[in-house]
Design a protein that fits this description.
Rossmann fold; 155 residues; 6 helices; 6-stranded mixed sheet; binds guanosine-5'-triphosphate; alpha/beta; 30% helix; binds magnesium ion; 6 strands
């Protein structure tokens, strides 16, 4: 299947998926609750956090991962969610991890969020704050290397 968007973003409810897509210029600037799997034409696939919370939806996430070049898996640094071990290996493409809300989260919780991502099989993990922008440039340059995206001209 030809990828229909550079990336899909997944992660728990309120972890900052839609906010991060907006910051990357890969989703609408106005962020509201994501109610359903959403195709941002040619840019990204956004998913509601409920699909990560309820294992019966994992299959839909895994199938849609075939439509993108990369999956971004977010974890809220304030409220890490424990995922099934090695679940990332079920995805059709590689998964990059992002711990969000580092402006609010305690260090111990950030480390727990990273541990959860590693347990899920993620190797590359970034920490960022959508609020302050800390860590955003590091993620952008990683994504520019992995995908044919030019964030400087997109934003
Ligand atoms: N302080 C802080 N707030 C954040 C950060 N990222 C997102 N938020 C806030 O968290 C709330 C939820 O953000 P969303 O981007 O809607 O989260 P989501 O993961 O798309 O949530 P669902 O669509 O419900 O799955 C919003 O009020 C954001 O402004 C962050 O890094 N730091
Ligand atoms: Mg959302």
């Amino acid at each position: 299947m030809t990828p229909s968007a550079p990336l899909m973003i997944i992660g728990p409810v309120g972890s900052g998926k839609s906010t991060l897509l907006a910051a990357l210029g890969l989703g609408p600037k106005e962020v509201k609750k994501t109610e359903a799997l959403t195709y941002n034409q040619g840019l990204s696939i956004d998913t509601p956090g409920e699909m990560m919370a309820l294992p019966r939806f994992y299959n839909a996430l895994i199938l849609n991962s075939a439509r993108v070049s990369l999956v971004l898996m977010l974890m809220d640094g304030q409220k890490p969610l424990w995922l099934p071990a090695k679940i990332c290996f079920a995805f059709k493409t590689s998964v990059v991890g992002v711990v969000t809300k580092i402006d609010l989260a305690e260090q111990a919780m950030i480390r727990r969020a990273e541990l959860s991502l590693r347990n899920a099989g993620v190797e590359d993990i970034f920490r960022l704050s959508n609020l302050t922008g800390a860590g955003l440039d590091e993620l952008k340059s990683h994504l520019s290397r992995r995908l044919t995206l030019d964030f400087d001209s997109a934003n």
